[in-house]
Sequence to fold (435 residues):
Amino acid sequence: MNQLLKIGMTVQTEDSARSCRVEQFLGGGGQGEVYRATLDDAAVALKWYFPAQATAQQRRNLQLLIAKGAPTFRFLWPLALAVAPGVGGFGYLMPLREPRYKSIVDLMKRRIEPSFRVLATAGLELAHSFLELHARGLCYQDISFGNVCFDPANGEVSIGDNDNVGVDGETGGGVLGTPRFIAPEVVRGEAAPGTQTDLFSLAVLLFYMFMIHHPLEGRKEVAIRCFDLPAMTRLYGVEPVFIFDPADDSNRPAPGYHDNALVFWPIYPQFFRDLFTRAFTEGIRDPLHGRVRESEWRAALAQLRDLIVYCARCGAENFYDTASGQSAGACWSCRQPLRWPPRLHIGRQVIMLNHDSRLFPHHLEQQLYDFSNVAATVAQHPGNPAIWGLKNLTGRNWVITSGEGAIKEVEPGRSVTLAAGTRINFGGVEGDIRC
Fold:
């Protein structure tokens, strides 16, 4: 690829004429090229548009986004327009993505193997990030593999390609999205990208993350002999059928072709599968009212994190399904019987108390999800490793009522034994331990 900018040259920010040195070519795409650059001794990314893409509309869109600012720090948001003497067109500066982030393409190709906890955290952060974006009257228009990365160690996300973000209801129609992620009504030409179509694309992305498969690719896909534009339009737009639609089995996953979907779908709790079912049945029939909202995904993914249990034999993550009652079943990985650890019920929340489980502010208070602020942790008794407790890491006393009715306080830094029937008043909410 012929590089638009030369390494070592200087571009300037349009607003303040600050100098930015081009350091390294990182790659190119359909709109332009991306470089590593230095601005005020800090590393940034610089995207420079191809001449045909450096339009007045694109400039106005960038100016709007820069003025609004990033919805959250998870977005690699445009910071400033950039121009260069003697070079046509323009570009923009944005934060540089850290190397620890990996593409979801890496997940699909199994180059990374994150835990279910990491996937749930990444999904929660994505749902929250797009909720914040939509709350500002903006729509992403192109949620897909190529625009989202996450840290496979902890699930933190990084969202790029934000220069195509538009105002909901005022998009110019230049960006329709990425094939396979585009909402059916957009595929059919009946609607333009917006917040509602973002919700469909988000559901597709989450399905890919958890099932390693597309929600509409089943037997109908296998029957296609020429996967051309008319065939894609029919599969994803005109006749879309969810592969696990409870009322229509015409597009079930085909063994030998869609094994990922067949393996992963039964692993997850019923409430989580129900959300996907709604997203790709009601959400297709009624795009305005039937789609799963970002806040619903966020709450469901937080609950999914809490329901993880470990197989005592192979260590694989499994899930406690609140719909199945006391039946533990077998590990999906080694097929050996599972045994549930103690669990904490706080209202509708269920938290499985594994050896590494933690409570966070959203468990005890009505706060945003913050996994950096630990409120309690499961810990072994220092004198008897066979006894496990829940250690108070908050700044206030808990009031404990044992199964026999004895009441005592647990100060910060102290633990309450994980015994069935114990009730814990955390100060704002109350929970009970069940075994």
Observations:
- The first strand starts at residue 10 and ends at 13.
